[in-house]
Amino acid sequence: MSHCKLCLHGCLCLLALLVTAADAGSRAEYVGGTVAALAGKPGGALDTTHEQYLFFRTRELTVQVPYERVNLLEYGQKVDRRLAMAIVISPMFMLSKKRAHFLTVGYSDEAGRQQAMIFRVDKNDIRALLVSLEARTGRKVTFQDDEARKAGKG
């Protein structure tokens, strides 16, 4: 009987760990935009679980953007630049083609100035992130091309 209690306790701990990991947000890397505090392409997590704010959390800082101020959501996919260099070095690298998933979030800051953040988002997180952002902001995601539309809509 104690073995069953231990199994149940272990399952509950694992479930709590998974829920905590899910709450951490979508893995992303800031790759450009107007937020000077994010210089250096920090990695972090985009969190859409809050009802009023989008959060981008890194080890050093957290940026929050009110959903009501978001005025642009754009998603695009492009072949990583490393592919072109790899082809020059060795044609065998053609087999390891990698796609990058980019999300642009445009918004107006508290002073009314237009701001933008561009993120490279993990391929396993992009669909859920796009759906969450559309629901929270009330804005439709703009897709850069048909290929991005297919990847973003699943």
- Low-pLDDT ranges: 1-23, 79-87
Give the count of structural domains.
Answer: 1
Q: In CATH terms, what is the architecture?
A: Roll
| Approximate helicity band | 25-40%
- Mean pLDDT score: 78
Shape: globular
Gyration radius from CA atoms, angstroms: 19 Å
Topology of helices and strands:
Layout: H1 2-23, E1 26-33, E2 43-47, E3 53-57, E4 62-66, E5 70-79, H2 82-89, E6 99-108, E7 114-121, H3 126-137, E8 142-143, H4 146-153
Parallel strand pairs: 5-8
Antiparallel strand pairs: 1-2, 1-7, 2-3, 3-4, 5-6, 6-7
What is the structure about, briefly put?
The chain has a single domain (25-153), classed as PH-domain like. Helices cover 32% and strands 34% of the residues. It has helices spanning 2-23, 82-89, 126-137, 146-153; strands spanning 26-33, 43-47, 53-57, 62-66, 70-79, 99-108, 114-121, 142-143.
Main attributes?
single chain, 154 residues, eight-stranded mixed β-sheet, alpha+beta, disordered N terminus, PH-domain like, 34% strand, 4 helices
